[in-house]
Design goal:
TPR-like_helical_dom_sf, Serine Threonine Protein Phosphatase 5, Tetratricopeptide repeat, two-stranded antiparallel sheet, about 5% strand
């Protein structure tokens, strides 16, 4: 054993940081960036990993050797990271594949590399059972903190001096599924800690943690999380030693009773069900069927490496089905599928599917091997296996968040570290790699041979790139973090109507990181708003006109850059471009043509979206091309026959074409789709009455265009019995300025 005090301090610092980040990830957040939660968790984690890597380099130099944990997991892990690297090289959006899609941030190659380094830091440097247990307890404690805060928010309880926490929907884990995922893993680990703890106090604490985490997983993840967790718990109990289970019966029965009582009250008893299942904002994802269709269709078109990590947001609008238009989420562009398995199929392709398949098979085999060894470490192996298996199960329940993937790598690393420490297991060990240089020293002779001095140099060779990679990681973290700080400042200033400061911070964000489309879209809309404000006064000076023209030109440059260079496959970019040109129609003679072209490109990338066709129809309506407008409105109705605003716009186009009977039919259809006595209902009723008056006055034959030219693929008489989720009614081109 090395007694070097400096070496011991370095190693303890590495292990201490493992415990610290395990405790912080479930609940850490900051309010200084645009997105409070996952973004800050990721970059806190990356900074800590970089610091740990620097310490690991120092440890190598102090030990004068290079040791790395080696296990059967190495090959599948190499395959997975290779799939991320290759898919990033061929990605439809390289920025998203490297650093995550905007607002989601995970997965991206940058953070995946950090997770891999984290795994090897744990498996190589956590060198005692005591240190492994400490990391586990910190992780479980962090999970229950996130669960408690989440449940407090869910049930509407108010905490003093916690302004943000008291806002409905504020979850420190980030999203409802992230909260459920953390609780899911925490509950599984707490169960095994309870069964394998020797002290009654520890068993009691673990039982409480298990109960709280189970409730949180069920509340935020739904019945599927509760059922899956019960299944995992049952399997783990069966795999535990009978004597451990018997020793825990004093806590087992009250815990099981509390869980069963909660499930009955939450799902079965009507009186309590209505109270416990609150109208709480939760994350929504596409259905299993919709996710599978999109993933399999994407695999057909991009078979080998997929479309790139974090590019599901591009796949969804391109491949979503018409059936999605008849759900309550019809107007949402999802950026994640139902679960991570479908995300891998869609974004990493066949190579990624094979890599993950090998990883799952090898992982399950190693877990089974680990818990079969009946030695003093078996209870710890069961705890670590519980966390690892629970993290794997989450891949089938929901998409992978950073929090759930962190738990996967944490328990995988700790499980490997336990195997390294355990002399009764031989499938993992720290391999010492050696590379020596030879030097000759004259005058030292033994049996007529010169003594050859060997100097170990590999630790210097390995330490140098690790240091370089760590410095690069910190630099890239700063480069990604600063623009998000600027965007938050811009939003805060905009909220208090300080447009000048908001504008400046948006400009700084783009200068710091010009590779995010969202920054350019926000900047373009701000330029337009400021220009409109300048031109809205009664007397506009020449200087103001010049400044407004410069702002409009800047908006056009930004919007052209993101559609033609940065990310031309994102329909949101083309939609933003169309909106910019639509706003310029009063000022530029050809703006309407550019808007039409942009909307057509957006429609090609999002072909089943009826909103785009209504917006494009509004441009034609403003040009008084009512036939083209009606054709587009009819296409929108064909895509979604219960789309009230599309039918309302179609009614107006038919009205302008003097097809009053058909217009009357559409307005009557709109009446059946909107809520009775709502403002929209009153509005369409007034329009309908006007059409009826015109019909009554039309006694003589009147020449008018044939309506047959307007495509009529869907019936206008078959209406849903219950109103669907609708937008507010708008007349054609209501948001499009006319000349």
């Amino acid at each position: 054993m090395n007694t070097n005090p400096a070496l011991a301090k370095v190693n303890n610092l590495i292990v201490g940081l493992v415990s610290a980040i395990s405790f912080l990830v479930p609940w850490f957040f900051l309010t200084i960036t645009y997105e409070f939660f996952e973004f800050n968790k990721i970059y806190l984690f990356i900074v800590i990993v970089c610091i740990m890597a620097l310490m690991w380099s120092a440890k190598m130099i102090l030990e004068k050797k290079v040791g790395v944990a080696k296990s059967p997991l190495d090959l599948p892990l190499i395959l997975i990271i290779t799939s991320y690297a290759l898919s990033s090289m061929t990605s439809l959006d390289r920025t998203a594949s490297l650093f995550g899609s905007y607002g989601r941030w995970f997965p991206g190659l940058f953070v995946i590399v950090a997770l891999y380094i984290f795994y090897y830091l744990i498996s190589t440097n956590v060198d005692s059972v005591k240190k492994i247990k400490a990391a586990v307890w910190f992780a479980v404690t962090g999970s229950v903190i996130a669960s408690i805060l989440g449940l407090i928010n869910y049930f509407g309880l108010v905490l003093p001096l916690m302004g943000l926490q008291n806002r409905t929907g504020f979850l420190v884990s980030g999203t409802s599924y992230a909260t459920a995922s953390i609780a899911f893993v925490g509950a599984a680990v707490a169960l095994m800690l309870s069964l394998n703890s020797k002290q009654a106090a520890q068993k009691l604490v673990c039982s409480i943690i298990l109960t709280v985490n189970f409730i949180a997983a069920t509340v935020f993840g739904g019945a599927i999380f509760g059922i899956a967790l019960l299944t995992v718990v049952a399997i783990l109990v069966l795999k535990s030693q009978e004597e451990d289970v018997q020793k825990s019966k004093a806590f087992r029965f009250p815990t099981a009773g509390a869980v069963v009582m909660f499930l009955v009250l939450f799902f079965l008893v009507p009186q309590t069900k209505n109270i416990l299942q609150r109208n709480y904002p939760k994350e929504v994802v596409p259905s299993v069927q919709e996710s599978w269709i999109i993933s399999s269709t994407t695999l057909r078109d991009f078979p080998i490496f997929g479309t790139g990590a974090s590019t599901f947001y591009l796949n969804y609008p391109r491949y979503r089905t018409l059936d999605q238009n008849y759900t309550n989420t019809w107007n949402i562009r999802f950026d994640k599928p139902f679960n991570e398995l479908m995300n891998v199929i869609s974004t990493l392709g066949i190579f990624g599917v094979i890599a993950y398949g090998i990883f799952i098979v090898v992982s399950v085999k190693l877990c089974m091997r680990s818990i079969r060894v009946n030695d003093p470490y078996r209870s710890l192996a069961l705890v670590l296996t519980a966390g690892f298996i629970a993290s794997l199960v989450l891949m089938a329940l929901t998409y992978a968040s950073f929090q759930s993937t962190f738990m996967l790598f944490l328990f995988m690393g700790l499980m490997t570290a336990e195997t390294v420490v355990n002399t009764n297991k031989n499938w993992a060990k720290v391999a010492v790699i050696s590379l020596s240089s030879k030097t000759q020293e004259a005058g030292a002779i033994v049996e007529d041979q010169q003594i050859i001095y060997r100097k170990e140099i590999l630790h210097y060779i390995v330490a140098l790139p690790i240091v370089a990679l760590s410095v690069f990681g910190i630099y890239e973290t700063v480069r990604q973090y600063i623009p998000e700080y600027y965007v938050r400042k811009a939003v805060d200033f905009a909220a208090i109507q300080n447009i000048e400061q908001s504008y400046d911070y948006q400009s700084k964000a783009i200068a710091a990181n010009p590779n995010r489309s969202e920054y350019h879209r926000l900047y373009a809309s701000t330029n337009i708003a400021v220009a409109q404000s300048m031109l809205s006064g009664e007397s506009v000076s020449d200087q103001q006109k010049t400044a407004a023209q410069n702002l409009l030109a800047q908006a056009i440059r930004n919007i052209k850059y993101i559609t033609e260079t940065l990310n031309p496959l994102d329909p949101a970019n083309w939609e933003a471009r169309a909106n910019v040109y639509a706003l310029l129609i009063p000022a530029a003679a050809d703006a309407d043509q550019f808007a039409i072209q942009a909307y057509n490109n957006a429609i090609q990338l999002d072909p089943t979206n009826p909103i785009l066709r209504v917006s494009l129809g509004g441009i034609y309506y403003g040009k008084q091309d009512y036939l083209s407008a009606g054709n587009l409105f009819k296409q929108a109705v064909n895509l979604k026959s219960d789309y009230a605003n599309a039918r309302y716009n179609l009614g107006y186009a038919l009205y302008q074409l003097k097809a009053y009977n058909e217009a009357k039919t559409e307005f009557e259809a709109v009446q059946s789709l909107v809520q009775v006595d709502s403002e929209d209902y009153k509005r369409v009723t007034a329009d309908l009455e006007q059409v009826k008056i015109l019909l009554a006055q039309s006694a003589a034959a009147e020449t008018k265009p044939s309506v047959e030219t307007i495509e009529r693929a869907a019936s206008t008489t078959d209406q849903p019995t219950t109103p669907a989720v609708q937008e507010p009614l708008k007349k054609p081109g209501e948001n499009v300025p006319t000349e």
